[in-house]
């Protein structure tokens, strides 16, 4: 059991986007500093970080200085180059650990891992070439979806195969990257569960939220989700199962499809998650602070929900609605991004429904 | 009516203590940057600020550079040297404005102002010398309390006069500073009301909190306060009265004594206030964000209380209780101060009682 980090200690965060920004603000509440490592200039997290290193993930001198300057390392995205992790882990503990990263970085590894725990996933098959794909389509059927094994997010690196005829184009879309074919799931809606596991092995989960996507990007999360009590319990148990199996330390997002045959795991993200942003205004301790508590070796805090919440992402031109939103009772959370781009997450709002 | 500051704009904050720290974290939620001006090295606010200027208030070059780098100026303490304000106000708007500062910087000006609004204060008299003091004691009686007109906080610059015999020592304690004598108030308890006024003139007040002091330092604030509905209304009306009279923009703390003859104003603070820290976990928009919204020209947010809260300050050795507190459901807010000193505010906790 690690000793909790003392007040004034520094948490290194790989990635300086909005998740790093909100992690930094949360760390400040616990008297902890953050140091951001980010290749891009002026990242959103820089506004609220104690220190920022602007360097690429193959800059070993910068990585070494960063690793020596921090007490523990965490990250806001999972696609961190392995060589950087190899170097950093010799300098400071990395939470969540390498096993969680390796599992979630590769859709094939992730699905095999989930099935090894007895959890349901979409039917899937490894696809390395046209022969594999033909065989996979024969086995899984269409419609199906071809996804790169690595580096996919927000619907990128995916191609739908509505009929076997689409196979060639889909494979071309992968641009030679290793891929998996996933069968379509007949689900009624998608929920996600945000779980946390402390360095002491304690597990705490937030209430599941119900997600609506548009164009492959999360649009809203609503709590409580439309779930039967037994499904809610199932969601918590399967999240705990995953967290324990990975000896996980930190917050994890688990996306689930709700089907007549139970909950099917879509994917896991070894970090704070967009579908957990509602916790900032619905709980005493939000997902960002919970993650910081875990990686800092503190006990987990209270994630009890005190209100019903609808979280809505502000994407691209949604920012034009800001003047109007500022006049409502919604809690506004902006990421300080100067340039509005289509599909870019610029902020989110949490609308609260007080209980009782 | 000022135009609202756009995302990415910078708010200059005079003072880098815990209030500046929490203002900075709140500003980040609105996509705004902060720039701290603070004479002391490594101030608490630096951990979450976009920029920090370390310089004294008579460094005109540093003040000029600061004033030119920010879009609006606010402050976390009221005792800012007048010469610095004179220079800064030529460079950027200052909110709350000079009238609020001038009024609250001097206990005599403040009391005259409050009485001019028809509000009750403790009986008081100006004391510049032993003759004034004798006359004031004859008029007001004992027990009474002699206070420096300027620069007093947390019980500093005060001397009790239990009997006329104590007058000489009390006057000596003032060390030649202009002072006022205040009569004792027979009050049952102290409450404070945190009010906000936007650039558009809209006023919003948080529910009054009930304060308990120890050794002249705030120990706890509890909401709801023990007040009759009519007293609660009185508190809101008098706060609005003060805010409007000063053409105020920002958050203000008003300390009130509850007496059989109504509410008596103890003092006003033209800034976010320790007795408003409970709003961080009791409201959608806390006092820090409300202040930022106001000084940035945004509409005020929702200050509706969704829970009963007890705020407890962590002072000096209270930090020894941190490991135990981290295991409770309390929301922890630490200021990142490295050195624990007796009487030093190190952080606070908010304990939530969910309604309904």
TrEMBL record, chains A, B:
GO molecular-function terms, A-Z: 5-(carboxyamino)imidazole ribonucleotide synthase activity; ATP binding; metal ion binding; phosphoribosylaminoimidazole carboxylase activity
Catalysis performed (reactions): 5-amino-1-(5-phospho-beta-D-ribosyl)imidazole + hydrogencarbonate + ATP = 5-carboxyamino-1-(5-phospho-D-ribosyl)imidazole + ADP + phosphate + 2 H(+)
Residues that bind ATP: 107, 147, 152-158, 182-185, 190, 213, 266-267
Keywords: ATP-binding, Ligase, Nucleotide-binding, Purine biosynthesis
One Gene Ontology CC term in the entry: cytosol
InterPro entries: ATP-grasp (IPR011761), ATP-grasp_carboxylate-amine (IPR003135), ATP_grasp_subdomain_1 (IPR013815), PreATP-grasp_dom_sf (IPR016185), PurK (IPR005875), PurK_C (IPR040686), PurT/PurK_preATP-grasp (IPR054350), Rudment_hybrid_motif (IPR011054)
Family: Belongs to the PurK/PurT family.
Protein name: N5-carboxyaminoimidazole ribonucleotide synthase
Organism: Yoonia tamlensis
Taxonomic path: Bacteria, Pseudomonadati, Pseudomonadota, Alphaproteobacteria, Rhodobacterales
């Amino acid at each position: 059991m690690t000793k909790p980090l003392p007040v004034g200690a520094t948490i290194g965060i790989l990635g300086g986007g909005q998740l790093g920004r909100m992690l930094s603000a949360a760390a400040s509440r616990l008297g902890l500093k953050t140091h951001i490592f980010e290749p891009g200039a002026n990242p959103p997290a820089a506004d609220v970080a104690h220190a920022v290193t602007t360097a690429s993930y193959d800059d070993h001198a910068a990585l070494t200085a960063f690793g020596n300057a921090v007490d523990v390392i965490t990250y806001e995205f999972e696609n961190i180059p392995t060589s950087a992790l190899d170097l950093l882990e010799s300098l400071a503990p990395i939470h969540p650990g390498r096993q969680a990263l390796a599992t979630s970085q590769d859709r094939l590894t992730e699905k095999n891992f989930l099935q090894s725990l007895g959890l349901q996933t979409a039917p899937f098959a490894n696809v390395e070439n046209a022969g594999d794909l033909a065989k996979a389509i024969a086995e899984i059927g269409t419609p199906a979806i071809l996804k790169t094994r690595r580096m996919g997010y927000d619907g990128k690196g995916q191609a739908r195969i509505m009929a076997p005829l689409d196979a060639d184009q889909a494979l071309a879309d992968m641009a030679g990257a290793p891929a998996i074919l996933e069968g379509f799931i007949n689900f009624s809606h998608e929920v996600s569960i945000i779980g946390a596991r402390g360095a002491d092995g304690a597990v705490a989960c937030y209430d599941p939220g119900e997600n609506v996507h548009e164009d492959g990007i999360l649009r809203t999360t609503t709590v409580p989700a439309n779930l039967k009590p037994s499904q809610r319990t199932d969601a918590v148990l399967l999240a705990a199962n995953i967290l324990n199996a990975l000896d996980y330390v930190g917050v994890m997002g688990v996306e689930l499809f709700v089907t007549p045959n139970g909950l099917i795991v879509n994917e896991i993200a070894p970090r704070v998650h967009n579908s957990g942003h509602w916790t900032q205004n619905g709980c005493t301790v939000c997902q960002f602070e919970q993650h910081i508590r875990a990686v800092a070796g503190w006990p987990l805090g209270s994630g009890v929900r005190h209100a019903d919440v609808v979280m809505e992402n502000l994407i691209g031109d949604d920012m034009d609605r800001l003047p109007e939103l500022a006049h409502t009772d919604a809690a506004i959370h902006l990421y300080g991004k100067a340039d509005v781009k289509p599909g870019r997450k610029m902020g989110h709002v949490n609308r609260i429904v007080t209980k009782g």
